[in-house]
Amino acid sequence: MKNCLKGSLTRLAVGGVLLTSLANAQASSDPSTSAMVSAKKDGNDSAIEPRKPSITDETTDESIAVDPGSLLPDLPPLPRANATLVGGTVERLDHVRDRVVVRVFGGGRMVVLFDPRTVVHRGAKEASIADLRQGERIYLDTILDGSTVFARSIRLMAARAAGDSQGVVLKYRMDRNELTIRDSISPAPVLVRLSSSTKVIQNGRQIGPTTLVQGSLVSVHFSSDGNGHETASEISILAQPGTRYTFVGNVVHIDLRTGLLVLKSSTDNQTYEVYLDTSIAPDEDLHPGATVTVVTDFDGSRYLARNLTVTAQ
Prior knowledge:
By secondary structure, this protein is mostly beta strands. Among the domains are: about 85-155, CATH 2.40.50.320; about 160-240, CATH 2.40.50.320; about 245-310, CATH 2.40.50.320. About 10% of the residues lie in helices and about 45% in strands. It is built from three helices and 18 strands. A seven-stranded mixed beta sheet has the order 3-2-1-6-7-4-5, with no helix packed on it. The chain starts with a helix and ends with a strand. The relative contact order is 0.08. Residues about 25-40 have low confidence and may be disordered.
């Protein structure tokens, strides 16, 4: 009996030792609670951080900049069409619709379109649309593009231009010192101002401006301020209505159909247009190069030949 009890106790002791050993072995392989809370970080933790995109020098504003002009389509070439020269003054300039309203010489208005293909010059220098001013005299080389008038080129007067004009006096206003003449090459009357230094010449001597009567043929030397204002520096009275003039010179051109005779005077080397009266019979010796003497009457617009003599060669 004692031996059986002793054997049972021995087996229980051995089993307890085995269980304790297994428990200690399991406990030693699991991390402690404090180790999980205060786990020591090592250098390998940074390897699991999210990877940030690298920025290189190639990704700059200059590399992604786009020229706005490259996004626009190229303008089509100008159509091949006959050009028409139009002269007038600027009445209104519309930069929104890209058009200019021109008061045309001789009357009327014209709306003309423009775009970057339009070439602008002031005198001999290149200019731009921004240089146009209201009231300024311009000349446009225009073409008909469909149903619209397009300016192929625009020419402005030089800033300080000087020139000569010849025409017939339409009106002289002494109170305003303004002389209006009908120029032979301009469809509209030309207005020039007189100043205190303006000289009026007739037959080689200086006279007063009161002799600028209507119908007088004059030659005017003027300068411009670029704003459409011309000031005369010298006015020469070439002829006055009802006055008889005699020309001696060589025939430059003759048109018997219209009765026009153009001659170069041997006195002043100027060219004059003379219209033959119907009573003058054509002479067989009358041809370009012939020397003639012509007696004319000035009627306020032209020289009318009353007598013509061909000098024998």
